[in-house]
Amino acid sequence: MIDLAQFYDIRFLLELGAFSILAVLILGFSILTVWSRNMVHAALYLLGAFASVAMLYVSLNASFVGVAQVLVYIGGVGVLILFAVMLTRRTLVEEESHG
Fold it and tell me: What pTM does this model have?
């Protein structure tokens, strides 16, 4: 008979807790990204979701994928989205003030 106490050691509980916290963070940031009316806030929430996914990869011992997530998505896509939002927002504000 298998003793269930050996499966529920402290390492398992810590990993389960970290995974659960990261899963809640990812879901929370994703929901905030979709429901946010301010585009800058939505972009920042999206970056938070990307960072949470990167932490999840690192916690699963896939550190290369986690670093690639940070460099490509947070560094590249996130900055691109923020610049696009900021430039578009500035253009819309200028058009509204002139018209």
Answer: 0.75
